[in-house]
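[Discussion] Sanity-checking designs against the backbone

I'm trying to build intuition for which residues belong where. Below is a structure token string of 258 positions. I'd appreciate it if someone posts a full sequence so I can compare it with mine line by line.
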């Protein structure tokens, strides 16, 4: 699996960033420079079935973790810091329990290891309702999607994946058929009989429901060194809603000595 990626910075400690479901590496471009300016070399990675990486089933965390392991080996990255948002956070956790001792620290953004119920059903219905081979404009796609998803910011995020193909028509950057069939796997619990002893930071938005206070019990069982930081006035997309606060919290953690 040759994953598409973008490298930010020429030197420094390697830090890999994985986006969430329906996202791609471009979602992190704005904030990546602020992180790189602190002396880190960033690898923004498109996970399979997203962005410009290959569209290939399945979409489950053992597979995504193996993709990440292959990417790290292919690029000769030693002892990186791994950061993942939402689905990307689940990938990072699965990687951590499967390939211990191959990374320095973990940063998990607004997701926990517990299982989550499927809650993208309406969005998937809306995306599948868009006749991708017939529409002539983004506005047309947005009008259809608005019948299923009322929040403009969510629709704008999703429609960033819409692009004009070489043939002139529209196409999706994500693999919609696989996302539709495998979405139950995206909420799967991350399990392990062994604990991950590496330092781990969990960052949540104060307005998000993905990590509750009581979830720290389960998080600590798997990641005994885990810390939880809450960023105010932010929801699930913490890094986009409060970028300065996010970078500050991230750097405080990364600058701590092990």
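Best answer:
Here's mine. Compare freely.
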């Amino acid at each position: 699996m040759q994953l598409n990626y973008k490298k930010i910075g020429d030197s420094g400690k390697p830090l890999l960033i994985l986006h969430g479901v329906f996202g791609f590496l471009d979602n992190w471009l704005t904030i990546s420079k602020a992180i790189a300016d602190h002396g880190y070399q960033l690898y923004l990675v498109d996970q399979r079935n997203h962005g410009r990486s290959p569209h290939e089933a399945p979409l489950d965390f053992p597979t995504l973790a193996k993709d990440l392991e292959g990417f790290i080996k292919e690029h000769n990255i030693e002892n990186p810091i791994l950061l993942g948002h939402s689905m990307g956070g689940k990938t990072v956790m699965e990687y951590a329990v499967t390939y211990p001792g191959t990374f320095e620290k973990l940063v998990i953004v607004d997701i926990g290891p517990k299982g989550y119920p499927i809650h993208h059903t309406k969005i998937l219905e809306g995306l599948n309702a868009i006749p991708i081979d017939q529409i002539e404009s983004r506005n047309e796609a947005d009008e259809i999607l608005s019948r299923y998803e009322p929040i403009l910011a969510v629709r704008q995020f999703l429609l960033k994946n819409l692009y004009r193909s070489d043939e002139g028509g529209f196409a999706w950057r994500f693999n919609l058929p696989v996302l539709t069939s495998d979405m139950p796997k995206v909420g799967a619990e991350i399990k392990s009989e062994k604990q991950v002893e590496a330092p781990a930071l969990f960052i949540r938005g104060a307005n998000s429901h993905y990590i509750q206070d009581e979830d720290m019990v389960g998080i600590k069982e798997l990641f005994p060194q885990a810390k939880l930081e809450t960023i105010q006035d932010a929801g699930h997309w913490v890094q986009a809603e409060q970028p300065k606060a996010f970078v500050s919290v991230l750097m405080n953690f990364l600058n701590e000595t092990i």
